Amino acid sequence: MKRRTAREKSFQVLFQMDVNDIEPDEAIEHAMEGPSEDSFLNDLVHGVTKYRQEIDQKIDGHLEHWTFNRLASVEKTLLRIATYELFYNEEVPNSVAINEAIELANSYGDEKSGKFINGVLSKMLK
Hints:
Layout: H1 3-20, H2 24-32, H3 39-50, H4 52-60, H5 73-88, H6 94-108, H7 113-124
């Protein structure tokens, strides 16, 4: 599976986990219609789950005029994935992590989601 596809599936899995409060492996099996053999997808889902509290604090510390709890689930989930890639996965270049998050925000969020995601992630790297 290409990494772009793995990110999209990871987004779907993590979004489902956030909305339905289910475990990572169960959410992966549901989204993939069986166990996932993709190591990148598994790393994203389990990594975001493992470091979720730290990731959420990083995101919250870089929001302006917003609180973390007010974020829509789409933006929250995409920020979590990108933050994990930026700070916990050294294989992915920062520019790729940010660009991929913006692309997914443009697909799944509203017309302002991509700009919002870009702004928050860019502040994290300053």
